[in-house]
Structure formats: C-alpha cells, structure tokens
Design brief:
199 residues; Alpha-1-antitrypsin, domain 1; four-stranded antiparallel sheet; 43% strand; serine-type endopeptidase inhibitor activity; Serpin_sf_2; Serpin_sf; Serpin_dom; Serpin domain-containing protein
C-alpha cells in the first residue's frame, strides 16, 4: 500500500503508530449500546531492529495501545505499508473443556438434536465433535480485511478528520507490530507482527 496525503498517524519517542479505520455497517435502529468501531493499528519502531524493544513496552503497560493511538490525521509525504496476509487456525476443544464445556465435547454425552432439523421435520441425534477457530488478516493495495469465523469487516485508508500542519513519513520497510482493536471497549481482536516486510 503506497501513497501520500492524509493518514491517521501519531509519532512518539522511538516509534510511530498508523491507524486504519474499518468501514462501519449501518447502525441498527433503537440500539441501546454504542456501535462498535474497529481499526487496524500498526506500531512501527524508528530503529530497524526495534521491534523487540517496542513489544516489551507494549507488554509492560495494559493501556499502552490506547494511550498511543493517533488523535488526528497528518499530512504524509511518504506512505508505504507492505502487503501481507497472516492466517491462523486451531482446534479449540481443549480450551473449551478448560473453560467448562466438557460435557458438550464428550462423545455420547451431548445431544444437539434440538438445534437442527433434518429437512423432513424429523430430528437426528447430533453431537459436537470438534471446534475450529480460524482468523485471517490481509493488507493489500485496496486496504485491509480481517475475518474470524463468519465475521468480515473491510477498511478504508482515509478518515474525515481535519489535517494537522506537520508532514511525516510512514515507511514500514522493517519489522512492525499490528493490532485490530475495537475502540469503544478497547478490546484487542487480533495481534501479530511482521518481521520481514517486502515493499
């Protein structure tokens, strides 16, 4: 992803942070809780070998991400973020058992026949055999996508906030960390790092 113009970037002592807001769906009518706001945040150390130092800073302070997010857009004279795709999948059976769902995963104990009809109005005996979680993060020339299970959100690389006068460069040509966060709750949905970016 290359370009110039305005991007949502904050610069700090030893690193910069890029925030790419995901496009939001239409809010549901009469929704009592605030609509979630998702964004991908790229934490880029100034030093080419600074990812380990930056990761330690993030790990030492639970509020580190929130405290260092950009607050406005800036003019960018050189903007480069490599295309990358990270995928992850794992079987969740052991984790779910540790959380107390043992009976649902034990053969012969769980009966989920009330959940699904067989199409003829009858019911078949069903049991939960395996739970698999899969997540994918992709950044390309169009923007970024993040998906987990059946949830898909897409991203725009611009924002409507007014620019600041300072002009900066954001060139991710060395290792960096990235996070997909939900801004209202502060929840981290995905976390990862790229150690060999190719721009």
């Amino acid at each position: 992803m290359r370009g110039f113009g305005r991007q949502r970037i904050a610069w700090h002592n030893g690193f910069k942070v890029l925030q790419l807001r995901y496009e939001q769906g239409r809010p549901l009518p009469a929704q009592s809780q605030p609509q979630p706001v998702y964004s991908m945040c790229v934490f880029l150390p100034d030093a080419r070998d600074g990812l380990c130092w930056l990761a330690n800073q993030i790990a030492c302070d639970p509020d580190f991400l929130r405290k260092h997010l950009p607050r406005s857009d800036v003019e960018v004279d050189d903007f480069r973020l490599p295309t990358f795709k990270v995928s992850f999948d794992m079987t969740m059976n052991d984790i779910l058992c540790d959380m107390g769902l043992k009976e649902a995963l034990e053969p012969g104990k769980a009966d989920l026949s009330d959940v699904v009809e067989d199409g003829t109005g009858g019911r078949r005996r069903l049991a939960l055999q395996e739970v698999i979680h899969q997540a994918v993060i992709e950044v390309n020339e169009e923007g970024t996508e993040a998906a987990a299970a059946t949830v898909m959100i897409t991203c725009s690389t611009t924002s409507a906030l007014p620019p600041l006068s300072r002009c900066v460069a954001f060139v991710a040509d060395h290792p960096f960390a990235f996070f997909v966060i939900e801004e209202v709750s502060g929840a981290i949905m995905f976390a990862g790092h790229v150690v060999d970016p190719t721009i």
